[in-house]
């Protein structure tokens, strides 16, 4: 089975002819194309846009896959960071609440001790009188 269709062959033939005449320009910079390989690449690219039977560009496929994977990994990293921040906030809140609870309980125990002392002092004064 043929990899390239007739339309693709015609596009490449036309582009190569333009290159020989010195009329072929690159897409972005509009510089004259002198390289044979670059001319073929341009012809295949035009054929792909026209809908001809041409295999996909292997360089393009890997770049788009890499972009997708890098976006996913960036999203994972940011979600991990935000999760870490949230857990840090939670742990900080827990620590502060534990500290405040410990302070309250120490105050309560101190109050209980002082009230016990007062009550024992009252009992002692009652017994002596």
Description:
The chain is mainly alpha-helical and 129 residues long. The protein has a domain at 1-55. It has helices spanning 6-21, 36-50, 58-128. α1 (6-21) packs across α2 (36-50). The protein is rod-shaped, with a radius of gyration of 40 Å. It starts with 5 loop residues before the first helix and ends with a helix. 9% of the residues are buried.
Which properties best describe this structure?
mainly alpha; 3 helices; 79% helix; 129 residues
Short account of what is shown:
With 129 residues, the chain is mostly helical. It has 3 helices and no strands.
Shape: rod-shaped
State the helical fraction. Answer: over 70%
Q: Assign the structural class, choosing from mainly alpha, mainly beta, alpha/beta, alpha+beta, or little secondary structure.
A: mainly alpha
Number of helices: 3
Low-confidence stretches: none
Arithmetic mean pLDDT:
80
Distance between the termini: 120 Å
Beta strands, count: 0
Which sequence of SSEs, written as H and E, runs from N to C? HHH
How would you summarize the topology of this molecule?
Layout: H1 6-21, H2 36-50, H3 58-128
Helix pairs in contact: 1-2
């Amino acid at each position: 089975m043929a990899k390239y269709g007739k339309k693709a062959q015609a596009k490449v033939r036309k582009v190569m002819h333009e290159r020989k005449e010195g009329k072929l320009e690159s897409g972005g910079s509009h510089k004259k194309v002198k390289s044979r390989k670059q001319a073929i690449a341009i012809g295949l690219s035009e054929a792909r846009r026209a809908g001809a039977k041409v295999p996909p560009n292997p360089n393009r496929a890997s770049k788009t896959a890499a972009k997708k994977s890098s976006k996913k990994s960036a999203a994972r990293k940011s979600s991990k960071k935000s999760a870490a921040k949230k857990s840090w906030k939670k742990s900080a809140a827990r620590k502060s609440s534990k500290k405040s609870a410990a302070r309250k309980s120490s105050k309560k125990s101190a109050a209980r001790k002082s009230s016990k002392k007062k009550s024992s002092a009252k009992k002692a004064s009652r017994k002596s009188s």
